Amino acid sequence: MNLVLAVALAAGLQAAAQAPSPPLAWTWTLYESEGPVVLANEVTDTPALRATLQCAPRSNVATVTLYDTDARSAPETQPGFARLTSGAASTTSAARIGRGGRLEVTLRTDHPLFAAFVGSGDMAIMTGDRTGAVKVERPHLAKLRRFADRCAG
């Protein structure tokens, strides 16, 4: 009897070890307590980030940060200027490069590009050979609109 239970337990453990892990549950979360307003594309309760948008309330200025989820694949990018596009709107912004392939740009929330981004949820950021994207899916567009409202001056 004990041998049968041991074999069954071993088979169950082996099957569990071979089962694929579930995909990460990426979501957009709006943080708007005291201090800066932050909209983060994250896996809840983990340090995993794809992108953050941050502003001081009523400042009319937002900082967009893209995080490379695999920093080893990030091409070497030098600080300089980035081209941002959303739909037909575009602009340039100074680009800052951080550890692990982090890319940071700042833009005014009253710029037509930001309005296009709030409407569509899509923005591309290009620096040199690197193109990053911010994609806010339809179910989360209300959070993006709330972020824009809180940042507006």
From TrEMBL:
Which terms are listed as keywords in the entry?
A: Signal
The domain of life is Bacteria
Q: Which residues form the signal peptide?
A: 1-19
Name the UniProt record assigns to this protein = Invasion associated locus B family protein
Q: What phylogenetic lineage does the species belong to?
A: Bacteria, Pseudomonadati, Pseudomonadota, Alphaproteobacteria, Caulobacterales
